[in-house]
From TrEMBL:
The lineage of its organism: Bacteria, Bacillati, Bacillota, Bacilli, Bacillales. It catalyses: 3',5'-cyclic UMP + H2O = UMP + H(+); 3',5'-cyclic CMP + H2O = CMP + H(+). PANTHER family: HYDROLASE C777.06C-RELATED, HYDROLASE C777.06C-RELATED-RELATED. One of its GO terms (molecular function) is hydrolase activity. This is MBL fold metallo-hydrolase. Residues 37-227 form the Metallo-beta-lactamase domain. It comes from the Bacteria. SUPFAM superfamilies: Metallo-hydrolase/oxidoreductase. InterPro entries: Metallo-B-lactamas, RibonucZ/Hydroxyglut_hydro. Counteracts the endogenous Pycsar antiviral defense system. Phosphodiesterase that enables metal-dependent hydrolysis of host cyclic nucleotide Pycsar defense signals such as cCMP and cUMP.
């Protein structure tokens, strides 16, 4: 049985922010429940795994899981908080003699190559626009609005009778962009703030109040919010839909239907 593991649940800056002494960042330094590395997840099937996104905290995330190397990676988009760990992964591939497999939308691959032109020596870059299958998961990908930051991609993964969607960076999605989200068993969605007051045109990720409206449309059985900034304090009791939880590093979710659960 497959398990989803949250390696990181933070926004582009992570938590704590080095300059910040807000309550959330202070708690993260002193107690640690609000520590958030950059967003990434791992899909563990018991004998192998694949990872989605490889940000600058990749090494720390691998050490926390006791993983000495990884073989396969899916990339949602080429922003630094999602690809900043690629040089370290390539170095691991070099020294262990493993040729890494990086799956990304075709238009994302040249951006990665321009930033890190030596990666192809150790990592094969494979377009996934037409859909791929890994570990029995049928994986579809599509472009989503990332607001002022342009675009990102989302993944829909289906295996047997279970479907889940990973969409860490998006905002103001239209009908076509949400079509593959409808009725999923699990939606993992990026929500950087509980409520973000900034003007919409300056923003790039849903807040939790907007996400609640999205959930009413796509109706997942369960949703988990990730990609959270220091605006989100896990000690607070936020008003959330009853089927929503906030991810923490190390959170594990079984990726199969539980006959004893109502979700």
């Amino acid at each position: 049985m497959d398990t989803l593991v949250f390696l990181g649940t933070g926004d582009a800056m992570g938590v704590p922010r080095v300059y910040c002494i807000c309550d959330t960042c202070t708690e993260a330094r002193e107690q640690g429940s609000n520590i958030r590395l950059r967003s990434s997840v791992l899909i563990d099937n018991g004998s192998d795994f694949l990872v989605i996104d490889c940000g600058p905290d990749w090494r720390r995330q691998m050490e926390a899981q006791g993983i000495r190397n990884m073989r396969r990676l899916l990339v949602t988009h080429a922003h630094f908080d999602h690809i900043g760990g690629l040089p370290e992964w390539a170095d691991a591939c070099r020294w262990t003699g493993i040729k890494g497999e990086l799956y990304a939308p075709a238009e994302v691959i040249p951006i990665i190559e321009r930033q890190y032109p030596w990666l192809r020596n150790h990592i094969e870059m494979i377009p996934c626009d037409e859909g791929i299958e890994l570990d029995g998961w049928k994986i579809d990908t599509w472009k989503v609005n990332h607001g002022k930051n342009g675009y990102s991609y989302a993944f829909r993964l289906e295996k047997e009778d279970y479907t889940w969607v990973y969409c860490p960076d998006s905002i103001s999605l239209g009908a076509e962009e949400t079509r593959l989200m409808h009725g999923a068993d699990l939606l993992v969605l990026g929500t950087s703030f509980y409520y973000e007051a900034a003007e919409l045109s300056t923003r790039s990720v849903y807040d939790m109040t907007e996400a609640a409206e999205l959930l009413q449309i796509v109706k997942p059985k369960k949703a988990v919010y990730t990609h959270m900034s220091h605006d989100v304090d896990l000690r607070k009791a936020y008003i959330l839909p009853e089927n929503v939880t906030l991810a923490q590093s190390g959170t594990r979710i079984p990726l199969y239907k539980n006959p004893f659960s109502s979700l």
